[in-house]
Amino acid sequence: MSLNISVKQQAKNAWVISLTGSLNTETAPAFGERLQPLLNNPGGTLALDMAGLEYISSAGLREVFKAQKAQKAVNGKLVFMGLQPQIRKVFEIVNALPSMRIFSSLQEMDDYLDSMQKQVTHPGDPND
């Protein structure tokens, strides 16, 4: 099965990467290449929308973890949303979920990003 990758800029420093299909040995290199230009953006957030992802292999996990490491190096975030049960199970098996931020929807992610940005622009404001 193939992998369709759609990238949409959500805010100045945030992108949603929607994945549909299978992230495996054949498709992982293209996924890594597609993410590369987005990774070295200090403080940026990448959201992987996995609602359409049906399968992930160890090669796919490797690319996800490489992206997570790259984001951490520039104080950025890699977050997840819409994990199918079988994809969530894979992340649980490798004990990755507790360290990852997962959202149920784009709206929940937008609310979180809005809150994080307000903490930076209005530090200490109790209304944020």
TrEMBL record:
<dbReference type="GO" id="GO:0043856">
    <property type="term" value="F:anti-sigma factor antagonist activity"/>
</dbReference>
<protein>
    <recommendedName>
        <fullName>Anti-sigma factor antagonist</fullName>
    </recommendedName>
</protein>
<dbReference type="InterPro" id="IPR036513">
    <property type="entry name" value="STAS_dom_sf"/>
</dbReference>
<comment type="similarity">
    <text>Belongs to the anti-sigma-factor antagonist family.</text>
</comment>
<dbReference type="InterPro" id="IPR002645">
    <property type="entry name" value="STAS_dom"/>
</dbReference>
<feature type="domain" description="STAS">
    <location>
        <begin position="16"/>
        <end position="113"/>
    </location>
</feature>
<dbReference type="InterPro" id="IPR003658">
    <property type="entry name" value="Anti-sigma_ant"/>
</dbReference>
<dbReference type="Pfam" id="PF01740">
    <property type="entry name" value="STAS"/>
</dbReference>
